[in-house]
Design goal:
The chain is an alpha+beta fold. Helix content is 35%, strand content 27%. The strands form four sheets. It has a four-stranded mixed β-sheet with strand order 2-3-5-4.
Length: 332
């Protein structure tokens, strides 16, 4: 049931010769599941399953400047440092594949992904930048190569480079798929909101299960094993929910994962959010592990779902939890 991203051995030409390329990447709405899991070799690694959301995304345009130094790279807006690193890495990759000398250029980023809410804004920028650089060189990079460059650029990456719509358990710090969970998530109605005043979370500073080479006490080792077993149980349940289209089971997994994340994130509105979900007959809640975006999940075919959504929005407002957008995920 595991699957690894394999970097493409060579670039595929797109036929572009103008020296200017474009790229696009979507965002997501936080995570359904996150934690520490086992890969096919039994090694522990951090992993996540994101909740897809159509609409917002990042767009990039890159123009090569042949004859300039590779470091002569202009990025607009100038604060997109991760995208700048990704563009530099992509330039080196493309130069090696085409035999052309690496050079500088100009990268322009636009988009409408909210920043700092845990919706993958930085990964979206990074992937769009890599794709734009490749396009400027007349190349199309495989998902594995894009994932490898994205992790090098930002140390952890969401699986936004995967375009086939299949839900995956993704090792974000390694840029590889641990498991394809099925063909598609069951459709959901998501009432989005923000917690904690919208404050961002530094994901890379969060604790991760230690590797076998790290010395820990017996009690710490037992606790770590319990954590992995709990995450693996949720993984099994999510796999079953995807296979059977079971929205209540998916919601239960998402809620359990969000509750586990509370040990680190500590959102003060969490209990109010789960209470609103229970009162309105929602399937559960999901919360981003790297930001403040959250969602109340409903089965779109449940009786009275529109009334349930309205009650949910009223409940969020009554508790001072800002609602953002209500959207529906659909099978591809």
């Amino acid at each position: 049931m595991t699957s690894a991203l394999r970097p493409a051995a060579t670039g595929t030409s797109t036929g572009r010769a103008s020296g200017t390329g474009t790229g696009y990447a979507p965002c997501h709405h936080g995570e359904i599941l996150q934690g520490v899991f086992l890969d096919h070799d039994g090694r522990r690694c951090a992993g996540l399953v994101t909740l897809p959301m159509a609409g917002p995304g990042s767009r990039a345009e890159f123009t090569r400047r042949p004859g300039t130094a590779p470091g002569a790279l202009t990025v607009v807006p100038a604060d997109r440092t991760k995208a700048a690193r990704a563009a530099a890495l992509a330039i080196a990759e493309c130069a090696e594949r085409t035999g052309l000398p690496p050079c500088g250029g100009e990268l322009r980023l636009t988009g409408d992904v909210p920043v700092g809410l845990g919706m993958g804004s930085s990964t979206s920028d990074v992937i769009a930048a890599v794709r734009a650089v490749a396009d400027a060189y007349g190349l199309r990079m495989g998902a594995g190569t894009v994932a490898r460059l994205a992790v090098r650029a930002e140390r952890a990456s969401d699986p936004l480079m995967l375009d086939d719509g299949r839900p995956v358990l993704f090792a974000q710090r390694e840029g590889r798929v641990l498991e394809v969970l099925g063909a598609a998530l069951p459709p959901l109605v998501v009432v989005g909101c923000t917690l904690g005043g919208g404050a961002p979370v530094d994901t890379l500073s969060l604790p991760v299960s230690p590797s076998p080479s790290v010395s820990v006490s017996v009690s710490e080792a037992d606790e770590d094993e319990d954590d992995v077993r709990a995450c693996e149980r949720l993984r099994t349940q999510l796999r079953r929910a995807v296979a059977t289209g079971d929205v209540p089971l998916l919601g239960a997994v998402a809620t359990a994962s969000a509750r586990r994340g509370q040990r680190v994130l500590g959102h003060p509105e969490f209990e109010a959010l789960t209470a609103i979900a229970r009162r309105t007959g929602a399937a559960g809640v999901q919360i981003a592990h790297s930001g403040a975006v959250a969602g109340v999940l409903f089965d779109p075919v449940a009786p009275g779902v529109r009334h349930r959504v309205r009650r949910c929005l009223h409940g969020l407002n009554a508790h001072g939890i800002p609602a953002t957008r209500t959207f529906t995920t659909r099978r591809p």
